[in-house]
């Protein structure tokens, strides 16, 4: 089964594609991580080798800058 979700309101972005050849399955799925990177997992599974996955990340992680008040050397 193949599917995709891209919801700009919730930020939920993901997709999946897989194919079966007898007892073997292969495919990939993607997930947009909260840090702004895209994670792609390529996988294969069969009776002989079990489940195997290769994970790739693309893009640049973005983290919000945190500001706080400093009093006597401590953040509050």
From TrEMBL:
Family annotation (PROSITE patterns): CHIT_BIND_RR_1, CHIT_BIND_RR_2
Q: Would the keyword Zinc be found if you checked this record's keyword annotation? A: no
Q: Name one GO molecular function term.
A: structural constituent of cuticle
Pfam families noted in UniProt: Chitin_bind_4
Report the InterPro entries cross-referenced here: CHIT_BIND_RR_consensus, Insect_cuticle, Insect_Cuticle_Struc_Prot
Q: Where is this region: Disordered?
A: 1-22
GO CC list: extracellular matrix; extracellular space
Keyword vocabulary terms for this entry: Cuticle
Q: What is this protein called?
A: Cuticular protein 66
In which organism is this protein found? Answer: Leptinotarsa decemlineata (Colorado potato beetle)
The uppermost taxa in this organism's lineage are: Eukaryota, Metazoa, Ecdysozoa, Arthropoda, Hexapoda
